[in-house]
Design brief:
Helix content is about 40%, strand content about 20%. It is an alpha+beta fold and about 450 residues long.
C-alpha cells in the first residue's frame, strides 16, 4: 500500500535524509511507489555481506546492529540516527536484527537520482517544504535543515547529500581557541552549528592582524584552500564556545566541489559577452598583477577582500565570470558567490587561456547605472585607480624598486585593501545600527502617542 505524504508515516519519512531535501512533488511521487514492510521481533532486516543495494529507513520499532556476536549499536525509529538509512554500505558490513516489531521502507538506490537542474531553478530545488520547516531551522537540533537550503547544497544530487551528512564529524571549541592559523594546510570544510567565530588576516609578519568578518550558526567556511590548493588565507578563532561539523577534503572535492561548480571556456565567454545582460568579468588577482595584464573589460577585486563586496555585487544581479591566473583560486571565489545566491562561473584555465590581443595593461575605469555609481565597491576599486592615493604610490614604487621592495610594497598594498575592507564592514554595521535606531525611535513615538491618548481619556 502506498504511503500518504501527509500521514504520520509520511511525515516521519519527510524528516529523513535525503528525503527531506526532495521537492514536494517528487516526494509525493516517491510515496506513491513505496510500501511499508513489517517484520516481527527477532528477525533480520538484512544480514552481514548482504549485497542488495537498497536504503532501509525505520518507521516504527527498534533494531540492533550487529557484527557476529558483537552488538555495534541499537537504533529506535524516533531517534536522530533513524533519520538516515541503516548501514548504507554495500555489501553490508553488519546485520540489522529487530528487537521489537518493526515497520520500515526499502528504497532502491535510483530513487534519489536527480535530473540536471537549471540555475534559475536551483533556488527551490531542494527546499524542505513541510509547514514547520522555518521553525525547525531555528532549532539547534535542526541545523542541517538550514544547511540543506543553502544554494551550494541545492546544487547537489540527493545521493551526495546522503553521503555528506553521514560523514560529518563534530568539533567543539572553547571561546578564544584557534581552529586553524593563516598559512596552515587546508584539510576540512566546516559548518557552524552553534556559536560564533572570527576570520582574521595579516598582510605580512610585520603588520597588525585585522578581523575581516564574523560567522555564526549555519554559516560555512574553510573551502578556499580546499578549492585553490593554497594554504589557509585566514586565522579562525572561536568568539564564543562553539560546536562545528566538518567534512574532510577528499569528500568535499568529490561530493561538493565537482557537482557544484560550473566552468566556461574563453571561446564560450566571447559568445556570452554578446548576450544581454552582459556578464561581469571579475578578476580576483592582486591589483599589481591585474595592472600588468588583464582581460579587456574586466574588473578587479582581490580575492581576500571579496566577501566584503558581496552586497554590492548582488546589486547588479548579473552573472559573474571569475578570472585568476590558472583558475585554481577562481574556484574558491565562485564557491563564495554561489553561497550568497550569486550566479558565478569559472573561466576554465584562467587568464593563461586568453589570447594576448584580448588583454590590456594598466588601470581601467568602468561605469554602472547612475544609482549605483556612488555605492558599489566594484566601482570604488576602479575609482581608486584614477586617484592619487596610497595604492597609487605603492604601485609606482613597486614598478621602480628592486624585487625585495616589490614584495614589501605588495604586502603594504594588501594591508591597505584589508583596511579598506574593515572600514566597509564597519560602515555597514553603522548603517544597520542607524536603521535599527530609526525604527526604534518611530516605535517609541507611536507608543508615546498611545500613552498620551490613554492619559487624556481618563
Amino acid at each position: 500500500m502506498a504511503v500518504n505524504p501527509n500521514s504520520p508515516d509520511g511525515q516521519i519519512l519527510r524528516k529523513a535524509f535525503p528525503l527531506a531535501t526532495m521537492p514536494g512533488h517528487e516526494f509525493s511521487l516517491l510515496c506513491a511507489e513505496i510500501n511499508i514492510s513489517e517484520i516481527s521481533k527477532g528477525n533480520f532486516l538484512f544480514t552481514r555481506n548482504d549485497s542488495t543495494e537498497a536504503f532501509i529507513y525505520l518507521i516504527e520499532g527498534s533494531v540492533s546492529l550487529e557484527a557476529g556476536t558483537l552488538k555495534v549499536d541499537s537504533i529506535s525509529a524516533d531517534s536522530d540516527s533513524a533519520k538516515f538509512a541503516l548501514a548504507h554500505q554495500f555489501p553490508r558490513k553488519i546485520s540489522a536484527r529487530a528487537i521489537s516489531d518493526v515497520r520500515y521502507i526499502s528504497l532502491k538506490l535510483n530513487a534519489f537520482d536527480q535530473q540536471e537542474v537549471k540555475y534559475e531553478e536551483k533556488e527551490s530545488a531542494y527546499m524542505i517544504d513541510n509547514d514547520d520547516s522555518e521553525k525547525d531551522a531555528k532549532n539547534e537540533d535542526d541545523w542541517m535543515s538550514t544547511l540543506l537550503k543553502s544554494p551550494i547544497f541545492q546544487r547537489l544530487p540527493a545521493n551526495n547529500l546522503q553521503q555528506i551528512i553521514m560523514s560529518l564529524q563534530e568539533v567543539k571549541l572553547e571561546k578564544g581557541e584557534v581552529l586553524f592559523h593563516q598559512g596552515d594546510i587546508g584539510d576540512y570544510y566546516y559548518v557552524v552549528r552553534k556559536g560564533r567565530c572570527t576570520l582574521s588576516r595579516k598582510a605580512s609578519e610585520r603588520t597588525k592582524e585585522i578581523i575581516l568578518t564574523e560567522l555564526g550558526a549555519n554559516e560555512t567556511f574553510g573551502e578556499d584552500s580546499l578549492l585553490s590548493g593554497e594554504p589557509r588565507s585566514v586565522t579562525v578563532t572561536a568568539a564564543t564556545d562553539m560546536v562545528l561539523s566538518r567534512i574532510d577534503k577528499e569528500r568535499f572535492i568529490n561530493l561538493i566541489k565537482i557537482p557544484a561548480l560550473t566552468y566556461i571556456t574563453y571561446p564560450e565567454l566571447s559568445h556570452e559577452q554578446t548576450k544581454e545582460p552582459v556578464p561581469i568579468l571579475l578578476d580576483i588577482r592582486p591589483t599589481t598583477e591585474f595592472n600588468e595584464r588583464h582581460l579587456k573589460g574586466s574588473r578587479n577585486i582581490p580575492f581576500f577582500t571579496l566577501r566584503m563586496h558581496i552586497r554590492d555585487i548582488k546589486i547588479e544581479s548579473k552573472k559573474i565570470i571569475i578570472i585568476c591566473a590558472e583558475s585554481h583560486l577562481s574556484k574558491a571565489a565562485a564557491f563564495t558567490l554561489i553561497q550568497n545566491k550569486i550566479d558565478a562561473v569559472v573561466l576554465k584555465g584562467g587568464l593563461q587561456t586568453v589570447p594576448q590581443d584580448a588583454c590590456s595593461t594598466g588601470k581601467e575605469i568602468f561605469s554602472l547605472d547612475d544609482h549605483q555609481q556612488e555605492k558599489s565597491p566594484l566601482v570604488e576599486t576602479n575609482k581608486a585607480a584614477t586617484t592619487t592615493d596610497i595604492s597609487d604610490t605603492i604601485d609606482q614604487q613597486a614598478s621602480q624598486s628592486s624585487a625585495l621592495n616589490k614584495d614589501i610594497n605588495l604586502e603594504l598594498q594588501q594591508e591597505n585593501h584589508l583596511l579598506k575592507a574593515e572600514v566597509a564592514r564597519l560602515n555597514a554595521e553603522l548603517d544597520s545600527t542607524k536603521k535599527q535606531y530609526r525604527m526604534l525611535y518611530k516605535q517609541t513615538e507611536k507608543l508615546k502617542e498611545v500613552l498620551d491618548k490613554l492619559k487624556s481619556s481618563k
